[in-house]
Design goal:
This protein has helices at about 5-10, 30-40, 50-60, 60-75, 95-105, 120-130, 145-150, 175-185, 190-195, 200-220, 225-240, 245-255, 255-270, 300-305, 315-335, 380-390; strands at about 20-25, 45-50, 85-90, 110-115, 135-140, 275-280, 290-295, 340-345, 355-360, 365-370, 395-400, 405-410, 410-415. It is an alpha/beta fold. Helix 5 links the parallel strand 3 and strand 4. The longest helix has 21 residues, at about 200-220.
Length: about 425
């Protein structure tokens, strides 16, 4: 079993009184993670509401559930320990959110709730309606590079890179390119990634897409036409890593640009995608003001867009996958390590671009992402341009496949991707 990095955060917040809510894309391993975690807690109750018998027992009798909790709480207090309650698929009984609010307010510090589920939108909505101020949460993403390869991530050091250059590994792991191709071809969702049979992988991803459309979209009545949304999903996946263009997609689908914008909002709310907003600066030039969209899983994006083959090195398709992979790895570490970073991108109307701007409010660095084993001066010319125009950007980084410990230029550094 692959050890999940989020487990460290669960251990960190163990003694805090707030309700812990784990969010994320479907089938990222939330249930597996929480079931493993609860095994180390001797005093806990577990309510897997995907079990029909358990669901049916409490769905029409919330009072019985509350009394059961209070009775267990009375026994627990004799041991001077908190009662931990784990609820899987909590959105299946909406009234539980109101019950949680009452129990939390009445027994704060004596009871600890851990909740999660697979339907993201109703979960977030009901949490906001009833549990505001009572919840701490984290997103569980698909598998990360350091979880799979068991290496220490240096992502958190990107804003301190000149000081930690000696910590960087420049020796490319022998299987690294093969690893990347597997990520791009099978996705980083745990089950498809760990499956060896390629046909079985495609079956799993087909089932995943169908389940998403059925359970997240149609069943929740999020759209009026599931067929159009399915076509939109395919187009959105094909535009992974690109700047959003609502009008173009609207024209292709015969719908309004407002509807396309709403659809993209649904993808974000259900953790299928995230967006990078444009970098806000005072440079006197025309810049792109639309966001860039990234699928949370690059391999899933390729499959949904109809590209089930593994892309070849030195192709635009491989470069696009590599960019999405790098952005996602950074996003994962920002979440898991509680980094207070602002991530954005920069693009001028005449095509000058930095793939990523990282800021913590005090320091900034600009990042180019290149799926190349040999970096040339043309690969970081935009970084030099940005640093000349915006003196608040301290240095530039090229995240690449180059395994050479070389300083590319003044205040511009190479950072091999296997260190993320």
């Amino acid at each position: 079993m692959i050890e999940r990095q989020l487990k460290e955060w669960l251990e960190k917040v163990f003694a805090r009184p707030q309700i812990v809510h784990i969010l994320g894309l479907r089938q990222t391993g939330k249930t597996t993670l929480l079931n493993e975690f609860r095994k180390i807690i001797p005093n806990h109750l577990h309510y897997p509401l995907q079990n029909y018998t358990i669901l049916n027992k409490y769905r029409s009798n919330i009072e019985e559930w509350i009394l059961e909790i209070e009775e267990a709480l009375s026994r627990t207090n004799n041991n001077n320990t908190a009662l931990h309650v784990f609820i899987d698929e909590i959105q299946k009984i909406p009234d539980l959110f109101q019950a949680l609010q009452g129990l939390y307010d009445n027994y704060k510090g004596r009871i600890k709730f851990w909740i999660w589920g697979s339907s993201a939108r109703p979960l977030k909505r009901r949490r906001a309606e009833t549990l505001s101020g009572r919840v701490i949460s984290r997103i569980l993403f698909p598998l990360s590079q350091n979880e799979i390869r068991k290496n220490d991530s240096l992502t958190a050091q990107l804003l301190n890179l000149p000081k930690v250059l000696k910590s960087i590994s420049y020796s490319i792991p022998p299987d690294y390119i093969t690893f990347l191709k597997k990520c791009f071809g099978q996705s980083l969702l745990p089950e498809p990634f760990l499956t060896r049979d390629k046909d079985a992988v495609y079956d799993l991803l087909d089932t995943y897409k169908a389940s998403y459309l059925e359970n997240e979209i149609r069943r929740e009545n999020l759209v009026s036409d599931i067929g159009i949304f399915s076509r939109f999903l395919t187009i959105a996946a094909s535009e992974d890593t690109e700047v959003l263009n609502y009008n173009s997609v609207a024209k292709d689908l015969g719908i309004s640009s407002h509807t396309v914008k709403t659809y993209h909002g649904i993808l974000e709310d259900t953790f299928v995608t995230s967006q990078l907003t444009p970098y806000i600066n005072r440079m006197r030039m025309q810049v792109c003001k639309s966001s860039k969209v990234y699928f949370t899983d690059t391999g899933l994006a390729r499959f949904v867009s109809g590209q089930s083959n593994t892309p070849f090195m030195q192709t635009n398709a491989f470069g696009k996958c590599f960019e999405g992979f790098v952005i996602n790895e950074i996003v994962k570490q920002v979440e898991y390590q509680s980094l207070r970073w602002k991530l954005s991108f920069f693009r001028t109307k005449n095509g000058r671009e930095a793939d990523l701007i990282i800021s913590d409010g005090q320091k900034k660095c600009a990042v180019e992402i290149k799926a190349k084993k040999k970096i040339t001066t043309s690969d970081f010319k935009n970084l030099k341009y940005m640093m000349e125009k915006d003196v608040s950007i301290a240095y530039g980084i090229v995240i690449s496949l180059q395994g050479v410990p070389i300083k590319l230029a003044a205040n511009i550094y190479n950072f091999p991707a296997w260190n993320l």
